[in-house]
Amino acid sequence: MSTTQTETAIWDIETVDPAKALEIETMRGNVASNPEAFWLEQAGRLDWATFPTIANTSSFEGDVSIRWYEDGQLNVSVNCLDRHLADRGDEVALVWQGNDPGVSRQLTFRELHAEVCRIANALKSLGIRRGDRVAIHLPMTPEVVACMLACARIGAVHVVLFGGFSPEGIGERLIDSGAVAVITCDAARRGPKTIPHKVTIDAALKHTGSIGSVKNVIVVNVSDTVVPMLPGRDHDYTALVSGQSTTCEPEIMNAEDVFFLLYTSGSTGKPKAIVHTTGGYLVWAAYTVDVTFAAERGTTHWCTADVAWITGHTFVVYGPLANGTTTLLFEGLMGWPHAGRWWEIIDRFNVSSFFTAPTAIRALMRDGDDLPRRHSLASLRRLGSAGEPISPDAWLWYYEIVGQKRCPVIDMWWQTETAGPMLSAIAGAQPLRPGWATTGIPGVCPSLTNEKGEELVGSGEAEGCLCFNTSWPGQTRSIWGDHKRFCETYFSFSKGRYFSGDGARRDGQGYLMITGRMDDVINVSGHRIGTAEIEDAVATDHSVAEAAAVGISHDLKGQGIVVFVVARSTRVPPSEAHLTKVISERIGRYATPEKIYLVAELPKTRSGKIVRRLLRKIASQETDSLGDLSSLADVTVVPALIGQVKEQFQPA
Ligand code: WT7
């Protein structure tokens, strides 16, 4: 376990408002004394076709069953759109800023509702029904939000796929999810570049071949790029959608019906589809956005995450819209066409809540204080950060330069599996502390265990594995098609607890600081990648006998990837460029390593396990503190390895 900030000084930023503190204290008291009543009250944030009479019937034991609001019925799109029509139908639901600074669009709740109904009817016209999986592979355009909501309207399960996945990666996910349709576009605009989408899907569908179940591909015109269309399978979005009716009866879903699947990486095996269900997820999205970010009517909320990640689902789409808040969607890049682009957008659209990842904050910080200072940023009320640990200096920069010392910085810890923030400072209710994700939000019970999974009881200072002792409405229900893997991954480490995979440190007041992943997951610029994924990709190349990937710390990305490769033959060893290409073809360019070292042998234990801890040290040039080597089968591997790495190392 790494403790990166053990010696960090602690600054508490006192912004406590007694009324807010009391409100949150009361919530904590209520949920502790009667959790059923508390969570049923939170269900009241939504409109239900049948209001649930029970909240939580989950069990972390045995076959693990997570169930919330199980006798409730509802439709997500009704909650995000229809119920706002009467009193705020003409208020803006979605502000869209295009890649080109001159292009933007605003859709009111009424307009978005009409578009969602049209798409829903179009999907139905293709025979897509409740429970069918629909893959969405779109850039940050209004259509992506409308298509997600259209799936919700007819009870189809959306599977949003990241634009950076390779055709092979997409093909695997299409097969695994059993998707019957894909919604994509011609090509996306990313700053000065055009990123092909339709041809990526065509290539992905070639990979899936006859095992694939995709019958229809809908193509949105985003960039006027000419793409091949396969008659019978491919449909032009405008032609399909524009003539449809603007009314569509919502499908009434059971609370525990699957709402969406979202792929993420684990420490072993292939990417897994995290399952979220309808009622619990939406209560959680509505609750967490409101409690952490005060989703007030008439304010504009901008979370810069791509919709293809959980942050995008919950903090761009469902959380803000369920609360009736305006959400901003930005198609382009942070620093294009000029470095102050984000600040310009905040001023232009009066953004009040701004939420991004530490990797972006570090990049903005590197650009200097001048750029944000040249903008007003007066509309900002609160700032959020999530996705990776934020260092105290980046936190303070964000607070002082962007937030002008008037906006709290809210560091939230969450995961694809948790669907929304679990640990978060609540502005006004407690002092803020740079570098600390602070405490569980009301209703969340974090705990720490030792490496054996035994709880480090109490609230005193401790360091260990971050677990949760009770369920919450947004908790993932399963891994699609592999409930056994689900039980093993999250519930076998500590009996009766959900294990997050992260390490954390607790101070005497119960504040928590995340120390990073404890498993073989690397967090590159907020993208979660399993070492096994990279190793499997590299090992498919015939030139490679064996590979091991590790994460090393990286100034901008948080972590970078380093791969150690043993060649099958020393006569024709693979080149670094070739292996990099293999990784980008099999996974995607976001998984590009910082460095690939060709080595003669990997360090292993007597039972044949690769000792990644040692590789991490060697890759980080920390060779004076290699630690205990007694578990190695052959210690002579180590000096040889250090020598080979030294030879190939080029300082950045
Ligand atoms: C992993 C989950 C915000 C959710 C999007 C990422 C790391 C997340 C924090 C934070 C330190 C964080 C953890 C976690 N992480 N938020 N505030 N401080 N680390 O979801 O892709 O499922 O990744 O991101 O390691 O396990 P994800």
Give an account of the 3D structure.
The chain is α/β, with parallel strands linked by helices. Among the domains are: 445-518, Luciferase, Domain 3 (Luciferase, domain 3, Roll), CATH 2.30.38; 525-648, ANL, C-terminal domain (GMP Synthetase, Chain A, domain 3), CATH 3.30.300. It has an eight-stranded mixed beta sheet with strand order 3-2-15-14-16-17-18-19, sandwiched between helices. The protein has an eight-stranded mixed beta sheet with strand order 10-9-6-4-5-12-13-22, with helices on both faces. α3 runs parallel beside α10. The radius of gyration is 24 Å and the shape is globular. The two termini are 26 Å apart. It binds 5'-O-[(S)-butoxy(hydroxy)phosphoryl]adenosine. The site of 5'-O-[(S)-butoxy(hydroxy)phosphoryl]adenosine has 22 residues, from α10, β18, β23 and β24. Its EC number is 6.2.1.1. This is Acetate--CoA ligase. Residues 28-80 form the Acetyl-coenzyme A synthetase N-terminal domain. Belongs to the ATP-dependent AMP-binding enzyme family. Residues 533-609 form the AMP-binding enzyme C-terminal domain.
